[in-house]
């Protein structure tokens, strides 16, 4: 069972590489595509599980506490992102920020409502696992959602769904906070630009190019003899050239991981300047 789960997880991770999970820049189209893919994975997992000849109690607990929620949690996450972005209002940044804030409050309600189970799960407790994660062992003294009565009794204990919701909502909380932060940051950039002399300068290169430039300026020591934080440099670039660099440290990490040319933008600047000089010399 573990070997099958490892192969399935590997397939899912490969598919996730095309999604900007850390930056939370996920389109409705990408979310819908992932929902369909994960539905197929969950169906594949169900077919595999139901034909197992024999299974120990510990294996069943591991399956419903860890394996199934890993897939179902992602499925719920991408489905929720699709719904959230589909219903997102078209309006000012402030209006959209309020919308994301409302969604965050609904997550707070979920965690408060399921506080005991959430604490049990996050503490890696095991003393109630046989009631939570073994089919047909539910204890009506424990807090349970009515949803368990309409779930597939052969492929669910009811609480595997709660674990999946916890996984989904913890990821969703990060997603919503980043979306809200990015909107608020755009407002700050806009207001800061209004304080500068009017200019039409706008960065038309990539965020990676701007990040490469920002870090090189910071580490060259040419600003304040090097006594400046990289955040100040990046804020200056954002405000001056009307660009939101997002998580520029994450972009920097990606730049470091380049195999061949780690500084293509800086090299391009050098080549452009040399061509200019050569052209001037030839005139």
Structure, briefly:
The protein has 283 residues and is mostly helical.
Architecture overview:
By secondary structure, the protein is an all-alpha fold. The longest helix is centred in the middle third of the chain and has 36 residues, at 159-194. It is built from eleven helices and no strands. The protein is elongated and about 85 Å long. Helix content is 68%, strand content 0%. Helix 3 (57-87) runs parallel beside helix 7.
Keywords:
single chain; 283 residues; mainly alpha; 68% helix
Q: How many helices does DSSP assign?
A: 11
What percentage of the residues does DSSP assign to strands (E)? under 5%
Compute the gyration radius: what is it? 25 Å
| Biggest sheet features | none
Return the average pLDDT rounded to an integer. Answer: 89
Which segments are poorly predicted (pLDDT under 50) over 5 or more consecutive residues? none
Into which percent range does the helicity of residues fall? 55-70%
Structural class: mainly alpha
- How many distinct beta strands? 0
Please provide the ordered H/E string of secondary-structure elements: HHHHHHHHHHH
Whole-Å distance between the termini?
Answer: 74 Å
Tell the overall outline: elongated
Set out the fold topology.
Blueprint lengths: L1 H15 L11 H23 L6 H31 L5 H21 L1 H8 L6 H4 L26 H36 L12 H14 L9 H12 L6 H9 L7 H19 L1
Helix pairs in contact: 1-2, 2-3, 3-7, 4-7, 7-9, 8-9, 8-10
